[in-house]
């Protein structure tokens, strides 16, 4: 199905309209290769909580979380609790922000990324199926494969400031799920840079 993309960039916000995964419904399955060459299929992780993070380090909103190590700390905290965390890079190969596998591995090591894997989504298939509009744009999938949260990582929609002092929605939602409770917040407006799709 052809998706029509309209984007409006205003003060770091991006509005995009297309078919996307919906909170409260089963998530689209996908198969993707990570930067080490390993193949991941989302359905293979049923029974685990999965976090998807739309990623592009060239975006200042993303750098705000990675430069001080806040994002890496959150990744480590949640993966140690059994959560699967996928960094999803949907930058198309013709864009200056694109990372080859070698460049991605170097960036992974230099930043000390603690996610489960960095998925190459240069085709944009995962990003468009989920409606990833910004970097970052976060998604939390419960153990049954249902999307329970999508939106901003926190309540601080800025490319500056201390992310550790913000209300982190991803941490909050995951901890609620781990405690067997229903998340209070299930959807927020994502903020950041536009995802660099091919079209």
TrEMBL record:
Record keyword Signal present: yes
Annotated protein name in UniProt: Redoxin domain-containing protein
This protein's record includes keyword Magnesium: no
Signal sequence annotation: 1-19
Gene3D superfamilies: Glutaredoxin
Keywords: Signal
Listed Pfam families: Redoxin
Domain Thioredoxin residues, every copy: 21-179
Molecular-function annotations in GO: oxidoreductase activity
InterPro entries: PRX-like1, Redoxin, Thioredoxin-like_sf, Thioredoxin_domain
